[in-house]
Amino acid sequence: MQTTLSEQSRRLPRAAEAEKILRTCVHCGFCNATCPTYQLLGDELDGPRGRIYLIKQVLEGAPATEQTQLHLDRCLSCRNCETTCPSGVDYHNLLDIGRAVVDHAVPRTPAQRLLREGLRALAPNPRLFKGLLRMGATLRPLLPRLLEDKLPQHSPAAGSRPTPRHARRALLLEGCVQPGLSPNTNAATARVLDRLGISVTPVAEAGCCGALDYHLDAQARGLDRARQNIDAWWPHVQSGAEAIVQTASGCGAFIKDYGHLLANDPAYANKAQQISERSVDLVQILAQEPLEQICAATERRIAVHCPCTLQHALKLGGAVEAVLTRLGFNLTPVPDGHLCCGSAGTYSLTQPVLARQLRDNRLNALESGDPELIVTANIGCQSHLASAGRTPVLHWIELVDQSLAE
């Protein structure tokens, strides 16, 4: 696509990157065929091609408007379009650049600022988040429906973790909201990895991956969180930790981008690249290990929800299904598995109407094979799908851990 950036846009730190991405797009429109919001709304500007055009206009000097901001806000950042695109357009990075420019030019309403700043203050603080969850459980009948639905219903309590004892060591990102919403996920991960001869080392100094800030109008703060995590993990990487394991694919996708996002930071570029290279989703570890020796599958019918960040960002679509099939689990067919459930980080709170529509559509597909349980690989998807109160939803590692105990 022919592009001529304005003089102001040429001064942006990522101007050359934006121009390169825009020139890659041939405006074919294949991306709209798999865009969840375009399918719901039928508006060209609520599909990737239209959003690319909006960003192009702004970077070429056209004024950014509230309508521009709305169309960009409605994007789930699911990256389905990147999987579909025959030209390899790096859409998510262009979207990040465009959103930053538009958000700088278009002030948000007080209500929007309050919501976004509140989410940024609350979610990355595990202790505060857990405290508010306990308070919410007590006050559940008095809460608005949107908040009540977000409270976990039947999340298993965290079990014990094995004492580190193996020569093989891996770091584990504890996450920010997962310890409150699904406290057993990381404990189950530690138990399964221990059975495989890998000891998990939690690093308390590592906190939120930074994605939440980065995607809620605070990109600089998100990158600061990335630097803090790099500083926390670096000594362990140097002393022999073989991987940094994520049990939330949303976090994993962002950590994989550390190297790219900090490439121009001379103090962190090299470390960030090495951290990104050592970052793996949990399924990548288990796919290489002799699981059959430690696991006995159950006969329950299981539906697998593959998060967008796992299949479109990390390119691991089908990996969880392959591991569970190898172990003998009874997986039900799931149509349209490439589509987003509507969670998308904080999207279910910032765009609740669209998020609920997408959630219900995804649940209809997941439940079409009459499963007894739905499993997924991302805490946001898990919480969002479970909020409907239909089929129980767990992280897939908890299913594997349960089979070990049986």
List strands and helices in order, with pairings:
Layout: H1 7-10, H2 15-24, H3 36-41, H4 48-59, H5 66-73, H6 80-84, H7 91-105, H8 110-122, H9 126-138, H10 145-150, E1 168-172, H11 178-181, H12 184-195, E2 198-202, H13 211-214, H14 219-238, E3 244-246, H15 249-256, H16 258-261, H17 269-278, E4 279-281, H18 282-286, E5 301-304, H19 308-313, H20 319-326, E6 330-331, H21 347-350, H22 352-366, E7 373-376, H23 379-386, E8 393-395, H24 396-405
Parallel strand pairs: 1-2, 1-3, 3-4, 5-6, 5-7, 7-8
Quick tags:
alpha/beta; Rossmann fold; Fumarate Reductase Iron-sulfur Protein, Chain B, domain 2; 406 residues; four-stranded parallel sheet
Q: How would you describe the overall organization of this protein?
A:
The protein has 406 residues and is α/β, with parallel strands linked by helices. The strands form 2 sheets. It has a 4-stranded parallel sheet. Strands 6-5-7-8 form a 4-stranded parallel sheet, with helices on both faces. Among the domains are: 7-105, Alpha-helical ferredoxin (Fumarate Reductase Iron-sulfur Protein, Chain B, domain 2); 294-405, Rossmann fold. The model has no long low-confidence stretch (mean pLDDT 92). The protein contains 24 helices and 8 strands. It is globular. The N and C termini lie far apart (57 Å). Helix content is 52%, strand content 7%.
